[in-house]
Structure of Oligo-1,6-glucosidase:
Amino acid sequence: MLTRKSRLKDVYANPIGRDILDRAALQLNISKKVIANPFIRNLRLKTLPKLLKRRLSEGFVDTLLTLLNTEQDTAMSGDGKMQKAWWKEAVFYQIYPRSFKDSNGDGIGDLQGIISKLDYIKELGIDAIWLSPIYDSPNDDNGYDIRDYNKIMTEFGTMEDFEELVIEVHKRDMKLIMDLVVNHTSDEHEWYQKAVKEPESKYRDYYIFQDKPNNWTSFFSGSAWNYVEERQQYALHLFSKKQMDLNWENENLRQEIHEMVKTWLEKGVDGFRLDVINYISKRNGLPDGSEDIGRLMGYYGAEHYFYGPRLHEYLREMNEKVFRPYNAFSVGETPGTGLEMSKLLTADYRYELDMVFSFDHLETPGHTRFDEYQYDLGYLKSYMIYWMENYGNHCQPSLFYENHDNPRMISKINADPQYRIVLGKLLAVIQLTLRGTPFIYQGQELGMVNQDFHTIEELRDVESLNLYNKLCKTMGKKEAFAKILAGTRDHARTPMQWNNQQYAGFSDGEPWIRMDEDYKYCNVESQLQDEDSILHFYQELLAFRKEHSVIYYGEVCFTNKKEKDLFIYYRKDETETLCIEINLGSYNKKRKKCPQGVRLLSNYAELSPVFLRPYEASIWKQGNK
Ligand code: ISL
Ligand code: CA
């Protein structure tokens, strides 16, 4: 147990403490050396508020202690051989169904559209597909607000279409995982309707009701509480006002969720991506969030639910009752968890989740998604080195830059069009040669970039619209829109660009969200014809992985760790050694020496022995074996 007398080094020895200190160091741009300094290490927790000139309140230390003492375990050392698994060799492809392919001209992507493009996905070299939610939903948050878990969203098709999809995916020897959203449901879900209208029924505490709200805020702006007239109480929603948080304390509810998950496994799906799954256990009594943490993060209360007291228990229960009997794969979306917490959620001997998505690499420290800034690839390098060197062989990293919640990576790094192709390929090299399971987001394989939105009316996302309204209270409309434009999730949600015809071959009708002219130059059809395209490069790399199992299970070792812009690492096993050589900068970098061996793949056709050119990335094979 940690107490007010504990020292910073004790905090660092605690998994949550270590992640928080590492994260704070990143956020405040403080070197990790500060944490290693003996004077700092020996500071007692209770002295912190005074030392920091009361920029931290007294209450902060107690909040921190409660959080740290939530976790009593530490992860085992990660030495030893990796266990093999299909998902450690697979490359996943994420489909956002609304924007992938429309089959009936209503401007909305659908299941038949997906089926018509399975050959494309297979030919790309993909092994498994993750489908964003396709369940019945009023679409306040594009399907992440589920009204009926056992029904397909009418706009996307029918249950027959879904069953056909499963068969067609498997026929092509691929796997299919679904999105499982069980932290919350839509307020239109039958459970919530009954909880409100039939307060005597078993549904009465399927959700989180309180007589008084606390100070927690929603990720989509404003208070996290709705007043519910019928019950004269408040109900919790961490996301939109129509996404009501489920009460996992209730055993009946947990059982209903398990049964529902089983029905989908019975239909043959191979696993799940579990939406904000680390938020399901909320601290008893729902205490107010700390002012200090709230100010720092921009939202209040997260320390009471992002790694809650019963999280491991709930996951183990679901694993034992549902996932293991069906041999189902699971990847948890876990915002806010760092490396140590992720180990405790995914280590193979703990039987909770197979993998998690952690998010600290998506913004350069000191910035948030809604800041207009240039992402620093030097930071991506340091983040990857940290994970590759410390995550260990009991755990499998996930590797991704994009999903339906984030702007396009190329645009974040360097929006200058002259670099688009080399940069797109450089990102592919890193993602597809480090140790871990890659997740490619639709359009990433074309090098799709952020959209040229002009007005707030062109945006669709509830997060953007709510934030815009909030910002407009304190700043001008133009300024508010500029902020939204930097971070809006809609950049990733515009239609997939299939060809240069009207609506990019996505639909015969007007798409549900505006698209700019980029599809005229950047689309699947033209890239399939161009041997130097980003799409071809992905195809080559995906085929390359299948020939080099060193990428799945080999060691990874880094050199030149401190050298700016240079990212060099080796992948080694008994059979071969690959060297990956990358210039992370947009200038020529003088070469010290060229790796020995044969250059197998590169984003520059000709080799230059003198310079590494802007964003140059190559794979070399060493030795003669
Ligand atoms: O909490 C955040 C910080 O603002 C976000 O990163 C948030 O946790 C993340 O966007 C959660 O995403 C998932 O759940 C949401 C949904 O809107 C997203 O599309 C989904 O990926 C609610 O279901
Ligand atoms: Ca449609």
About this structure: The mean pLDDT is 96. Residues 90-189+243-540 form a domain with the TIM Barrel fold (CATH 3.20.20.80). Residues 324 and 351 are 9 Å apart (CA to CA). The first strand starts at residue 92 and ends at 95.
